[in-house]
Design brief:
Number of helices: 12
Distance between the termini: 77 Å
Order of helices and strands: HHHHHHHHHHHH
Largest sheet: none
Shape: globular
Oligomer: single chain
Structural class: mainly alpha
Number of strands: 0
Strand content: under 5%
Amino acid sequence: MKAHPPFLFWLTLLLLVEPLDSRADLSKGLQAASEQRWEEAYKEFKGPAATGNSNAQVNLGNLYLKGLGVAQSDARAFDWFEKAALQGNPLGESKLAILYFYGLGVPSDHRKAAEWFLKAADQGDAGAARILADLYSNGDGVEKRPDEAYLWASVAADLGHPGGEALRSELASALSPADLNAALTRLNRWREQQDRRLEAAAPQVQAGSKEHLEQALKSTLKPHSQPPIKASPQAKTKTHPGKKPQTKAEATTKKKTKKR
C-alpha cells in the first residue's frame, strides 16, 4: 500500500450521517462501516454516490484513500472528493484541498488547495479554517496576510478547534488596531452568516434532528468568544455580560465584616 505523508486528523476516515431525508440511503453503509465491514460499506455507498449523494461521495473517497474494502487509489479518491466538492459539500472541499496540497492523485498545487480550504472554512469547517489560518500566516499558496490569518484562526476557535484560540491570541499581538478591528468586523459578519444558514436549514428537518444538522454544517460548537483584546467601538463586537454590580447595602456589609 502506498504510504502517505501525515497530516494530523485530515486523512483519518470520517463517515458521515446525513441530516436530511437522504440519511436513510446511507444507514446500512454507515452501520457496516461502524462494524468494519468495509466491502459491504463500499457497496452501500456506491449507489447513492453514483446518483449524486455528496456525503456518499465523500465516504467513497475516504474508502479509496485508505484502501478499505477497495483497492487503494489516490486518483479515485480525488475523483469522488471532487464530485462532492463541486456540489458544495464542505468535507468534500476540505478533503480535495488536502489532496491538492500534498499532490495525492493530482499534481501538487498549494494555490488550489488554499482556494478549496477557503470554500470549506467559509461553510463552517473548523479544520479547514485552522489550516487556512496557517496558510495566510506563512504566505503558503496565498498572499501573506496576518489579518486574514487572524480571521480564520478566530473562525476555527469559534467552531471549537483545539488549536484555534492559541493561534488567534498569538496573531492578535502582531496586528495594528485598525487591522484588528477590520478582522473582528468580518468575523462578526461570518458569524451572522452561519446563524442565517442554520435558521434557513432548521425547518427542513424533523424535531429532534437539529443536532445532526448542526454537526453536518460544522456549526458553532461553543458560544462565540472574543479574544482578550480591546477593540474600538467601530468593530461592534459581541461581548459577554460582566459581574453584577454590588449594591450599597452589600458594600456596607462587606466593610463591617472586614473590621471584625
